[in-house]
């Protein structure tokens, strides 16, 4: 039976399900039969299978489990970050997190931006109150009660420290990406980290210690040992939360707008990473993703040459072109990432190609 959350969007037919799972329709049908996953059928007509979003992610996990070997998978922590806004950072973060889960990877996406645009892209309005939800007939599960700050030891909160399971949202069921949402109160975490620094304590490594203890199951409040990838979406502003996320990460995925490329932004980020390595003997590996790419524009190709010459090892050989579908996602016309709302679009295909290239670069899938 289709749940209310599944019915919030038009169900997928088998062809769309196959596209999302990067396989054939026959393979999807076979996986449904083998797995025993319950998929609704059209009431009238030819009884066509109608896949909910949850069904899609169930099949993705079923396929991954069937392929998995006994050896434990590599676990990766990455931050999507750009020193300037307007480069498509949050759009890419929400879509990449979704695609990672469609690959069967256990994915945790953490919104570290006070504006909570990533949270909104997954269907959670951080401004929604309990009263408004009740009045509008919206599920209470859509309310954002906690954010990443509530998971940090010592965070000033009347509710005390909570567990990860209390904080996460599961917009597409158990097997889709899990989300730690954000709201404006997350700003208090930056204040807390600043205070810790003024008191002479090393606040820069608090997030790194949290991740390390969570991956090793040492911290039961923040047990992230089951995840294959943890993806931070960091605010473009330079703050202590972003710095902490970078120090906790293996990779920093940095989108650049090929239309408005500025060498200053990448130069600044490169200097920050160098400074981190000099100070802490650790820094994430840089991966640059070209966005709003137009190979027919001379200016864009000139900028591409500049980036690939200067940051040859960091450049991801898979770019994303400008599409009219992206503004709709950004303005909230859809509460689904683009790869789910328009899986057959050219933009979705390029996002999937870029996600594959990222996973290959990070060692989570074979080339």
UniProtKB/TrEMBL annotation:
Entry keyword set: Plasmid
Pfam families given in the database record: AAA_31
Keyword hit for Secreted: no
SUPFAM superfamilies assigned: P-loop containing nucleoside triphosphate hydrolases
InterPro entries: AAA_dom, DNA_Partitioning_ATPase, P-loop_NTPase
Protein name: AAA domain-containing protein
Entries under CDD domains matching the protein: ParAB_family
Residue ranges of every copy of the AAA domain listed in the record: 79-281
Keyword Iron-sulfur: no
